[in-house]
Batch of 3 targets.
Target 1
Amino acid sequence: MNPPNFLVRRATLEDLSALLQLWSSMRFDADALAKRATEFQVAEDSSKAVVGAIGLRIVGKQGHIHSEAFTDFSVADQIRPLLFDRMKVLANNHGLVRLWTRESAPFWKHIGLDPADAPALEKLPAVWKDLGSGWFTLKLKEDVEEILSENSAFALFAEAEKRRTQKTLDQARLIKGVATGIAVFLLVGVVIAAVYLLRRNPHLTLPGRG
C-alpha cells in the first residue's frame, strides 16, 4: 500500500474552520489562535483535507514553533519533516537566526533543537518569556548585526580606554612639569640667596672651599 501524499502550504482564511476543529481537539485556545491563523502551515492529504498544522511566530529575527496539531498522530512522523522543511524556507526568507519551541515530540530534538541553557535563554524574546519553561532552541546562523554591535561596543570601550590612558599621561606630564618648575624656582631662590649673602658678607666661604 502506497503511503498517503501530503501537501504542505501556508494556512488561509478558508482553512479556519478546519483549524478551529483541530485546535479544539488539542484543547488549545482556539479563539486566540484564530487571530493568528496566518502564522500556521498546514498539511493536507490527497483529498484536500487538513490533517496537520503548526505555527511559526516571528519576532525580530527569531521564530517560535508552536501549537503542533494532527487529526491522526499515526501520520505525524511523516508530516513533521515536511512542515519543518517549509519552516526552514520561511526562516531563510525572513532572515531568522534562531528557532525556539516548547514542543515535546522527539522529532524536534532529533533535528537539532537542544534544551536552551541560561546564555541561550537571554536571547529569548521578552514576549515569549511568560509562556513558561522547557524551551528548546536551534541556532540557524550568526546574527551579523549582533556581532557588529559587539565589535562596535568593544571599539567604543577601547577608544574610552585610550582616552583615559592619554588623560592619565597628560596629568603625569603636567605634574612633572609643575614639579620641575618648582624645583627650578627653588634652585634659583637658593642661588639668589647665596649671592645676596656673599655680597653682604664677603668673608663667608662657600661649602667645600677653605
Target 2
Amino acid sequence: MDLPLNEDLVSGLLTALNQFTIMEFQQGIESIDMGGLRWVYLLDKATGLLFIAAGGKEDNAEILRARLIVIRQAFIQEYIKDDTTAWRKTWTGNVEKFYPFKETIDQYYSDWIAAESVMNVAEFFDVLGIFQQLLFNVLATLNRVPENTRDSIHNKIEDLFENYKNDEFIKENPELGKISFSRESGVNIITINPNNCDMVLVQKQVINLVVDIVETVKIYVGFYKALKFFIEEDVFEYILNNIGLLHRLNLDKFLLKLFLMK
C-alpha cells in the first residue's frame, strides 16, 4: 500500500521492538497490531535477516506469515543463495541494490489478491499456510544433524520431488507443479493459485508430501532424536498455539499423530 512513511525509520523502529522483546522475554515478536495494521515477523537466523510484513487487522496472521516465508525464500535465493558468510562480509547497509526485488514482491502480491476472490480460498490458504510453516520448522531441524545425514535427507527429499514432478497426474495439472523444493530455500507451497486448480486435490498432494518429508526425517535421524528436534524447533508449540484453527480444519489429530507416532 502507498503510505507516506520513511522506510528507514519504520524498519529501524520495527527491528528495535523485536530486539527489545528478545532482550526482555528471550523471544522475538511473532505478530503485533499497531497503527491500524497487523505486522508479522520472521527471523532468519542463518542470514541474520528480519523479514516483516504488514496487512490489515482483518488479515489472518498465519496467512501473512506463510506468504512472508515465500518472500524470504525468494530473497535468499536471489541475493544470498547458500553463502551466508560472504553475504555478511559484503553487506554495507546500502539497500538500493535490492530495489528490483520489489517487482518480485508485487508479482506475488498480485497473484495472491487474484486468488482471494475464489470461494473457500480463506480455508485453502489456511491449510497451505499451516503446512508451509510446519515444513519450515521441520527442515530447520536438519541444521542440528551431521552433514552426511543432512545430505542423505536432502537427497531423499529431492528424489521425492523428482518422482512427484514426473507423475502423469502432476503433468496434467500444471498448478500442482509449482510445489517445489531446494536445499537453500526449502519447500514452497504457498505460490499455488486456487483459480487454476482443484483445491481439494492440492490439499491431498500437499498432505502426502508433508507426510513423506516428516517420515524421511524420522527414519534418517531416528524417532526419538527427531522428536527432540521437533520440540526444539517449536513444531508442537506452533500446533498448540493454533489448535483451534487446526481442529476446525480437521487437521489437529492428523498432525499430532504424524509427529508423535513412530
Target 3
Amino acid sequence: MEKEKIEKYWSRFPDTYDKNQEYVVGNELLNEITDALNDLSDLGEVIEFGCGTGYFTEMLAQKADHMVATDLSNELLERAKIRLKKNSRITIQKENCMNTSFTSKKFDTVFMANLIHVVENPLKVLQESNRILKDGGALIIITFTKTGFL
C-alpha cells in the first residue's frame, strides 16, 4: 500500500483510537502490557513508531531521558500533541517507520505496539529499527489482537 493510502486509513481514527485499542486488545491484556512496561527502567533516548494518540507514550517517557513519538497520521499526531502537551521530554513528529529521517545509531530504545503486523513490510521496519538503534540498544515490540482484523 502506498504511503498516502496508509496515512489516509489511519487518519480516520483520532476520535476512536483509544477505544479501538481497548476493543481489539481487551482491557485485561492492556493492563498486563501496562504492568510490564511499568517494570522497564532507564530506556535512554527512545523512539516510538506508530504512537497513534500517545496511548503508551506518556508511560514510556517516564522511563526515558527523551522520547520521540512518531506516526504517519497528522490527525493522530495532533491528538497525541494534545494528550502529551505537558510533558517536555516528548517530541512528536511525523515519520515513516520504514524510512526515518534519523541518523544511524541515535536511539537507545525503539518501541512499537500493535504495529509490526499491520505494516506492509515488517522486515523494512526491523531493518530501519536496527539502523537507528545504538549498539546494545533495546527493541521492544508488542503485537497483539484479541478479536483479529478484517
